[in-house]
Amino acid sequence: HALRPILEEAVIGGADNAVQAGQTFTLTCPATLGARCNPEALRTMVANLVSNAVNYTPSGGSIAVTATESADEVVVSIIDDGIGIGPVHQQRIFERFYRVDDARSRALGGTGLGLALVKHLALASRSRISVESTEGKGSRFRIHLRRARS
Fold first, then answer.
1. Where are the beta strands (DSSP E) in the chain?
2. How many Cβ atoms sit within 10 Å of the Cβ of residue 40?
3. Does the pLDDT value for residue 109 go beyond 60?
4. Confidence (pTM)
5. What residues contact residue 58 under an 8 Å CB cut-off, 6+ apart?
6. Sign (positive or negative) of CA dihedral 112, 116, 117, 118
7. Which residues pair with 6 in a beta bridge?
8. Which of 12, 17, 74, 94 is 20 to 30 A distant from 27 in Cα terms?
9. Which contiguous run of DSSP H or E holds residue 7?
10. Residue 100: pLDDT band by 50, 70, 90 thresholds?
11. Is pLDDT of 107 > 60?
């Protein structure tokens, strides 16, 4: 599947919300890049991760969605320079109902199900999700997809 149209559709709401929140939003994906993926699952995963990035990045911050290809996979990254996630929480954030900051999550309308859904969709669509984050500096979530057949 061609990734750019899937990603453009996935980020539309989040990009608008980012601009309204005073954040910079960018999408970088070569027009020719493709991957073996479930388009609906990928759209949902990216939309969810972008929404989280917008919610946990202060005004003036930036959010970037990038798609790159390596020898063995295609990676869609959602990168922000927001509040970040402490190491203790990174192992648990994909669990159902787990919230790093209960009060803030409730104030933002969070259910604690978003990242559990992302992980479930990744597994169901034969992809995987990973995270790198530094508290106070931001997060990078990666969706690892299979390369398109050549």
1. 24-28, 35-36, 62-69, 74-80, 128-134, 138-147
2. 11
3. no
4. 0.90
5. 82, 83
6. positive
7. none
8. 94
9. helix 3-20
10. low
11. no
Secondary structure letter of residue 91 according to DSSP: T
Among candidate residues 20, 125, 2, the one with its CA nearest the CA of residue 67:
2
Yes or no: say if 59 and 96 are a contact pair by the CB < 8 Å rule. no
Radius of gyration of the chain (CA): 15
Provide the β-strand partners of residue 62: 24
Q: Is 112 exposed, middle or buried (0-12, 13-18, 19+ CB in 10 A)?
A: middle
Which amino acid would we find at residue 83?
I
Mean pLDDT of the residues in the chain: 90
